[in-house]
Amino acid sequence: MAHSVDALSSEKQGKKYVGTRHIAVASGGRTDESEMHYAEGKLDLAISALSSAIFLKVRHLTDRRQRRSVDSKFLDECVCYQPMNAELYRRRAEIYIKLCDLQSAVINYRRAVSLDPQHMQSKRRLAGLYYARGNACLEEGNWEKAGTAYKEAIKNDPKSHDYRMGRIRVWFHQHMYQSALTEVEHILKKNPSHIPGRLMRAKIFLSTRKFMLALSDIETSLKAEPDNIQAKRLENSLRDMSRVLYNEAAAFFLSKESHKAITRLNMSIELEPTIKAYRLRATVHRHLNKFTDAISDLKVAVNLFEEREDEPMPEELKEIERQLAVTLNDVGVNLLVARKYGDAILCFEKAVARDSQCTEYWVNLSRALLESGDNAKALATFELTLKVFCSVNEKGSASYKYTKSQIAVLRNERGLALANYMDYKNAEIEHTIAINMCDAAIYRYNRAESRLKLLNMTGAFTDISRALELDPSFKPANERYHWLKGKINPRYNS
Length: 494
Hints:
The chain has about 500 residues and is mainly alpha-helical. It is about 80% helix and about 0% strand. The protein has 25 helices and no strands.
């Protein structure tokens, strides 16, 4: 080497610093100029003048930062003498770093690496500088420059996960999820316990609506680091997303897009199983005639309610029970149509047990018993149903009239059966109840027949007369009327 650093320093002192007195005077003038600009609020000019003063004031420097500036200027001249000396570039780069001039530091380290590619410390320092530049660009939202900086950092230090994570963040912000996922998978393959990478993958899964995969990564991270703030925030984000999915499902259900509603509810429940989500999914299942799934969801909702540690809400539990009753009733109706009477009766009984004030369930249970051939139980249930109608004040409904008509039919049939056994007194009672439920010509006629057997001619004649009023074309009643007329008044036949 032609000149050593010490020789260059001596030469510099001999040639450049001869006019120390003149330099001090010039520096003082620049300092005064800086103070004047500062007083006038011209900060840019003040900084420029002050910088000139710092570089001019060589022998009178006491501030350590100012000496670094002089060292940097001195190294500039050394480099001019030894342009292929990588060490000088490294030294000058470090001074620029201390001066916070990262751009100049990058230029010098890049030159040092090009001169000495095997110097790993230089490459790592250069990678760190690019990483810092990438972070600054990322904060400013300049994704392109940030990506370029991180790429250079990885190029100089490919083993660093931090630099790769920087590029992943850029891709994430650019919605390049597949590229980001591939890179993070590369990190996790080499280091499965890398929590930042796992959480970044969770964010990618969350953005691509792969919620269960995101949840798995978050749970794994929290298991390794229970106090990890980012993991807790992502967990809260999943809960928020669960509520968003629930609202989307409700909207789809109202617009009669039940299958889309089920899809959203499945994801919502996977993220955060809540009572309301299970209840809504049960309702959608019921509208899709998936009654088994609906009942299963409602049972889970009941279990979740019972496991709650906060203040119990009886009304909410009652509402779940009512919803379960509705579903059981729907199942029973389908079984009744399929003539599976035993199963239908069981469903209706369970529905009644959960909501004993719903007349529809009582009517369906009575109907199922009637169609199964168990007339005695059917009659008893119809009469209980009638009492429920009275208690809830629904006497004007079509179901109420149906119930009364069925009681009348069954009572009339019982009266006929008793008459066959010559129990005319009880037969008359049964027919009377039938008439009270539904005053029909046939019931009047049948009671008249029982009264004739009891020799109650007047009562029988009254019933026959009423039967003809109700149905003048009822031939048996017409014949009996003329017969009774003759018995009561013999002159009538003559």
